[in-house]
Amino acid sequence: MFRYQSLEDCPLDEDEDAFQALGEEDEDIDQFNDDTFGAGAVDDDWQEAHERLAELEDKPVANREQDGPSGEDSDLLGEPEDTLAERLTRLVIDSELEDPAIMQAVQTKVPAQQPGGLNSSIWDSSAVLRRIRGPLLTQEMPSVSVLDYALPQRPPQTREEERDPSERALPRRSSSPVIGSPPVRAVPIGTPPKQAAVPNFNQQILCPKPVHIRATMPQRYPAPYGERMSPNQLCNVPNSSLLGHPFPHSVSPVLTHLQRAQLLGGAQAGRMSPSQFARVSGLVGSPLPSVNPKLLQGRVGQMMSPASGFRAFFGAPPAPSQPQHPPGPAGSHLQSLRPQSQMFRPDTTHLHPQHRRLLHQRQQQNRNQHRSLNGSVGDRGGHRSNQQERKDPYANLMLQREKDWVSKIQMMQLQSTDPYLDDYYYQNYFQKLEKLAAAEEVHGDGPKKERTKLITPQVAKLEHTYKPVQFEGSLGKLTVSSVNNPRKMIDAVVTSRSEDDETKEKQVRDKRRQTLVTIEKTYSLLLDVEDYERRYLLSLEGERPALMGERKQKICDMYDNLRGKAPGQDRPSDDHFMQIMCIRKGKRLVARILPFLSPEQAADVLMATARNLPFLIKKDAQDEVLPCLLRPFSHVLYHLPLGTVTSLVQQLTNLPQSATASAPTNLHLTAVLQNKFGLSLLYLVLSRGEELQSSDANTELMQDNQWTELMLMATRELLRIPQAALAKPVSTPSNLISLFSRYVDQQKLNLLETKLQ
Amino acid sequence: EKHLVLLRDGRTLIGYLRSIDQFANLVLHQTVERIHVGKKYGDIPRGIFVVRGENVVLLGEIDLEKESDTPLQQVSIEEILEEQRVEQQAKQESEKLKVQALKERGLAVPRADTLDEY
Questions:
Q1: In chain B, what residues touch A192 (CB-CB under 8 Å)?
Q2: Where in the cell is it found (chain B) (predicted)?
Q3: Is B27 helix (H, G, I), strand (E, B) or coil?
Q4: Is residue B74, in this structure, part of any structural domain at all?
Q5: Which of A245, A257, A390, A597 could pair with A225 as two cysteines, CB 3.0-4.6 Å apart?
Q6: Residue (of A457, A36, A392, A432) closest to A213 by Cα position
Q7: DSSP labels for A597-657?
């Protein structure tokens, strides 16, 4: 599955070939199975093989000439290399290994003779591998760890096909195995692939395709010497030039520590794979006694400096830039703590620019330190200058490629087809930051780099229609439920209760629940409507009218939900609306919806609110969320015509139409005045009225009896209420005084003024 | 390249980060567990730690220059352990009182045993 996805995502031409190559792997599966559980799983002969190989180790290394098709080994290597390389190039999804130097070199191998038939039932995987096995064994190939077959989840077939048995080989131990060694041989699931992360950094494909990295040809890494064998290191067995290895020359695929020592000693410059060096360096500090002194001397820093790539290895080992790399992947851990930026640089693509700068600074420093040593092959000098390494021999236990691997996994997890859906808050947060930065930019200096955010890989949404697995010739389909094919587990049926059985409380509860459901539905509509703007911008021209239509429809739906659909009736009752308004979320919902409603609808809402204000106030005592409505209300008020304003005030004050009998106390108004929201609202409305009045001198307002009466009533009430009882409004509009001045005399005006303060 | 790791149970470990994986499992070398009580702290050397990823809360790199720059006072191990014990005791006392008070009022604090302590 995983692999399929990666293949589908792959835009490169090798698709077809890759598919063909995949077919070949099926045959390997059975063999692998056998190896793991059947005959091949026998482990016992590793010791014998080990002994045998130990003797072989003493063979002269001279075989490993650079140009040596002469060597049987190299020839043997050549052919399997070749075939494997070909197959692997087909498999390789990204073009990392299209390094012409590598490919040419690999393909110039002369197909060689059959390898000697060294036993290894374990390695009966494929003919190719068998051929490899031969020479490798003769080259002191250590025993095979069957456990290596039990490998991580990543496309195992790909891996194992490519896998050189030498990978599983244990190097010769110069001392007896440490107690914990058998388990050590097991390859843990979390092991990073034994592949080169990016052999040629200059051609590295963008990070967004980490899947492809996994299918990259595994690189052969040297077996670490002896004792300190972490499982990872175990897998990173002697390199093989099988797979488009950057060293096209017939370097022996198996490099025991002895060979390595020789290499390090300067016999063959730059032939070691980067990880070899890294491994060696990582192992130098081993406290275990039987450390090969040569290895100890051959300390090399971490090879994979981003700029150099593998080509540098042909020349001389690039200046190590080691211990500072640990912050790299550790930094990737801090993704959640720090935004990171992606640049197309090899191993630092996912780091925050600041972080990357720091890293490279340190690298530069180290590079400069070792600049002089670049000429020396064996790096015997390397260790001399590298003081930091000496102080911390445990540095760089993790290869750069391992770090890259981990960070790629993490990047993969960030892949998203719809960032707005998956990561809404993050996106919004950064939009806000960017706006801030842009605003600041206008005033000040350039944009701050710290604001760059991690550009997560964006995968195009591909529709995969899932077809359940089918076997030919079988009857029916397999009933397998998986993520893509979920199976219904529970039948949840909605049963409506009969009305009679319910008690009053239950009815009330049900009604409340219904209201809650309505609120939630309306909320979804609201979120959709709010999102339309963004979609509008993203959509094509043709789609836009449709989008607008949808939006309008949704707005209508929302309004209907709010007011309660009363088919065939005017809206006689505010009941539904009141129910919603009793719930805190409902009030917030209304506040958010108001901007979307048409003026009439909005006014309607306002009226309903005003009408029932005391009730709402009472209910709001605990939540105190009514003031959130003030702002949208004021916006609405701006657009209200006069008549509406009048009625609003009326509602607020709850005066009977004809003030024939004015009650001595107006409870409604009193309540309104004593509540923060109510008072503020009242003020707002009054202020709006005043605006209208003052803006147009000839307005009928002056002649409007109703308005005058209302004003008188309001002022009277205001005066009556003791100062203490008066609520503290959110804001006191300035034109209230002028409003009142029309209706009251100076003395009262002064009183009012004091009250308003 | 010292790193500071905060674990879910509230421990702080400081060590050289040697290895990670995609689950945030960490291998720390020359680890020191640092206990903070008030303004004092104490270090207990622990050696090599392998931490399972799910227990990691956060991980940060220690700036070696700034490391010496703290207002905190380092004390001996015994002292800090003693302080910690005292602190724990005090916490437990207050917790007990709280539960008692709530019980009297008829309320019960749900004991979320699976919750992390910090």
A1: 21
A2: Cytoplasm; Cytoplasm, P-body
A3: strand
A4: yes
A5: A257
A6: A457
A7: S-HHHHHHHHHHHHHTHHHHHHHTTTT--GGGGHHHHHHHHHT--HHHHHHHHHHHHT--S
**A398 in contact with B, Cβ within 8 Å:** yes
Min distance B116 CA to chain A CA atoms (Å): 20
A437-485: per-residue pLDDT in tens? 888 777 665 555 555 555 655 555 555 555 555 566 666 666 666 666 6
| Amino acid residing at A265 | G
Chain B nearest CA to A708, separation (Å) = 56
How far, in Å, CA of A185 to CA of A121, rounded? 19
Task: Say if residue B10's pLDDT is above 80.
Answer: yes
**Residue B39 confidence class, pLDDT cut points 50, 70, 90:** confident
Comparing CA positions, the residue from A695, A507, A522, A691 lying closest to residue A593 is A522
- Would residue B33 count as lying in a domain? yes
Q: Which domain holds residue B24?
A: 2-105
What are the residue ranges in chain A where pLDDT is below 50? 1-19, 21-23, 61-62, 64-78, 92-99, 102-103, 105-106, 109-190, 195-348, 372-373, 375-387, 567-568, 655-665
B78 part of a folded domain: yes
**Partner-chain residue, chosen from B1, B18, B59, that has the shortest CB–CB distance to A333:** B59
**CATH code for the domain in which residue B52 is found:** 2.30.30.100
Pick from A274, A346, A266: which is nearest to A303 by CA?
A274
Asked if B91 reaches chain A (Cβ–Cβ under 8 Å), the answer is no
Residue at B114 is within a domain = no
Nearest to A406 among B21, B29, B61 (CB): B21
Find tokens 């607008």 and name the residue. A548
Contacts of A327 in chain B (CB under 8 A): 1, 61
Identify the DSSP state of A396: T
C-alpha pair distances (Å), A296 with each of A230, A282, A286, A299: 18, 10, 9, 6
Say whether A406 and B18 touch across the interface (CB within 8 A).
no
CA distance A337 to chain B (A): 9
